[in-house]
Amino acid sequence: MTLTPVDPLPSREVRVRAPGKVNLSLRVGPRDHTGYHPLVTVFQAVSVYEEVVAVPADGMVITASGLQAEAVPTDGSNLAAKAARLLAERVGVTDGVHLHLVKGVPVAGGMAGGSADAAAALVACDALWGTGLSRDELLDLAAQLGSDVPFVLTGHTAVGSGRGHLLTPAMSRGEFHWAFAVRDRGLSTPEVFAAFDELNRGVPHAADAAADVPLMQALRAGDPSALGAALHNDLEPAALELAPDLAEPLAVAQDAGALGVVVSGSGPTVAALARSRQHALVIAAAFTAAGVADRVLTAMGPVPGARVVGSE
Ligand code: ATP
Fold first, then answer.
1. Which residues 6+ apart lie within 8 Å of 229 measured at CB?
2. What is the mean pLDDT of residues 281-296?
3. Same domain, 119 and 185
4. Which of 117, 126, 148, 234 is catalytic?
5. Is 148 an annotated catalytic residue?
6. Is 7 exposed, middle or buried (0-12, 13-18, 19+ CB in 10 A)?
7. Is the Cβ atom of 111 under 6 angstroms away from ligand 1?
8. Are residues 165 and 275 in the same domain?
9. Residue 209's pLDDT band (boundaries 50, 70, 90)?
């Protein structure tokens, strides 16, 4: 029997890591005429990572492994696929790519897991295809993919406004340690915003950055106690309305001495700020012991944004 050799695709591989985020503060204004809510948010990138491995392929292939990978779409609706397609169109590349996502950020958990995949896919395909785009051009593509994508591309600490996509870097000193209570069943971001609209009907509210002065001071001073006291999320009552048992991990974290505790983004992940790495482990153990989380994570922040961690 003769075997016909098949032309192998080039074996080049690019690995990119992108962080999840926690919103230290999230302030939401009333829905505007385009249907979006103006936001002011303070993001911190945390050491819970998505990894995207890009290799040349025929067409677009998405696979996923890791945390809750079975909940991730592998068709064209995947944010990583959208990112690769947008970049290919922008630079006129017709090559295919296989993107393998190693999930570390909870799916639909309010920690920007899909956005991290999109940012990582942009950086990976940019390197694979040698597009020569500038960082600003990549940021522009990121903003077209979703309001959290520019931040996870950039990382560290930043204030987001508009839909969260207009970023201003923020000064932050030292390390902050977190414990996260994760739910297997996510909350839909549009449903949380709809519940927010219901709760705030007829109540004057605005996305006001001035309210975050104490939080920004806490970050500059590297003061975890002051940061804990300043954590804030306008969406938390809406998330609690949709998932009332989220009150349990919030209470458990407080009992375990958390410096502050907040629902992350649109939830349902609950983020507890700890005094130290050891204290974060204690809070995580308290979540587990009380049975108030499907899984727990610990992490520190701030960390850098999406970047190449391996290439061959
Ligand atoms: P955010 O914090 O930005 O609101 P999130 O972390 O709450 O986002 P994601 O994990 O990004 O939520 O997923 C939201 C939905 O998007 C999922 O339920 C899933 O159907 C879809 N999705 C598309 N691409 C991805 C991806 N690469 N990873 C996870 N979910 C994805």
1. 214, 218, 259, 260
2. 97
3. no
4. 148
5. yes
6. exposed
7. yes
8. no
9. confident
